[in-house]
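Letters spell out the chain; backbone shape is given numerically. Both lines appear below:
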Amino acid sequence: MSLPAPTPHTLTLADVSLRIWTWGKPSSPPIVLVHGWGDTGASFAAVAASLQEDFYLIAPDLRGYGESPCSAKAYWFPEYLRDLDAVLDAITGHAAITLVGHSMGGNVCGIYAGARPARIASLVLLEGFGMPETTPSDAPGRYQRWLDQQHTPPQLRDFADEATLLKHLARLAPAASAEVLAQVLPCWAVPLPNGAWRLRMDPAHKSVNATMYRRTEAAACWRATTAPVTLVAGSASDYMARFHGMDPMADAASHYAQATCHMLDGASHMMHWEQPEVVAALIRAAARRARD
């Protein structure tokens, strides 16, 4: 499988310019791909390889990730919804689309599909099933951490060399091919004059959000979604364990009117790197289902 190079575009908003990556022909049915925390739209190349002949793949870098510059001292989740809304306005218009989100991007897409149900014909969530519920008792410690970070902002570590960064990527996706990891590496980081590599993301993304996460609010958006939903998890992922006994995929599915669940055998959280053809096949099926 040859990994296709995406075409870069820039979308200028009032407060930030977003980098957008595309594959395929603009005349083809659109599929929008939204990356996770620390990731970039360009790392969907292996998935796009299987879809670009039949679809127009659109993958933005959310603000402060990849080649989209930093926008502020802090980031608030609704800003990602605004970024996605602007991308659809500019590229797909008001046509209903197939929307795909991975991890944090899945959380963005899951909420967006409930806020703008008419714009989504089919929804695919790759381990983007919300986050563990917070409780009021978490508030004092959370606010304390937020205040502390105003004095000492979080930082990201640089990687000593290309080999060290590749080892890091391989730990994130143990089953990914060398070809995929080599493509992801320059999407994720930029080389420095001293030979080290620096991640293409704003360290402010590591800051704790002062706003408590309420899963019940996300679930209300899931219930407002009218499109059929495909939920995908990896059997070798650590994602499910973060929920301390709750099955987040089953819980999310219970709120959607039309949900289908898939477990990818041997896949980790970065399933779009490890099993891109399988992920692409699920996306293709979801897109076809939207047209039927």
